[in-house]
Amino acid sequence: MYLVAVLALFSVLTVSTVGEAYIDKHACPGEGCDYCTLYKAVSTVTVYEQPSLQAAIVGEVQPGDTFISKDGEVHSVPTPCIVDRAHDKFQPGDEIFALTYSGEGWYKVFHNGELTEADLGFSPWGGSGGKTCDNPKYCWGHLTKELEFTWWLYVITEDGVEGWVAGDETMRAIDNRG
User: Fold this and answer.
1) Which of 36, 82, 84, 106 has minimal CB crowding within 10 Å?
2) Dmax of the chain from CA atoms?
3) Cα gap 35→93, rounded to integer Å
4) For residue 101, what are the β-bridge partners?
């Protein structure tokens, strides 16, 4: 089973230059992210049958209407990260692939045939290390380009429509924790 998983990930990584994504099921792209969250549409939110912009459209959520997320996944284009200085098991010149951003600088990464996690020291949202980590004060490596990912949420709308929406600026979470 392990070999199959490694081979599947390797095939994704080797074809990533043509737009293949690493799919991280049940993942969220950052801290403070969870499911069973109520969202409000800021503008029209398209609901898809599958987590893909090419999938059939099963509905829309109009501005002001709400929906609840039940699950999700992050689709990331494996992004090369070049190690500039030794850090943990990584050596200068090593190339690792950043996959899913977990929050607080942590990413799922692929390195030497192993899927693991590493604190790259920056966020794809920007901050003191930039979006690719160009500040050596905070970072031991740097991305060769900005991380590309889509966060897909499996949702149920007020009308009972179930499907997938892309987590973006068309929606915002409503604090429903009390």
Assistant:
1) 36
2) 54
3) 38
4) 107
* Residue 9: band (very low, low, confident or very high) from pLDDT cuts 50, 70, 90: very low
* Residue 96 amino acid letter: I
Domain harbouring 43, CATH code: 2.30.30.40
Residue 33 pLDDT: 76
Structural domain including 107 reads 1-178
Distance CA(129)–CA(62), nearest Å, equals 37
With vertex at residue 82, the alpha carbon angle to CA 139 and CA 166, rounded to the nearest 5 degrees, is 85
User: How far apart (Å, rounded) are the C-alpha atoms in residues 125 and 45?
Assistant: 22
Q: What is the mean pLDDT of residues 51-64?
A: 97
| Beta-carbon count within 10 A of 15 CB | 11
CA distances, 147 to each of 18, 29, 42 (Å): 15, 11, 25
At residue 145, the 3 state secondary structure works out as: coil
Q: In this model, does residue 66 exceed pLDDT 80?
A: yes
Structural domains counted in the chain:
1
pLDDT at 20: 77
Is the CB of residue 173 less than 8 Å from the CB of residue 38?
yes
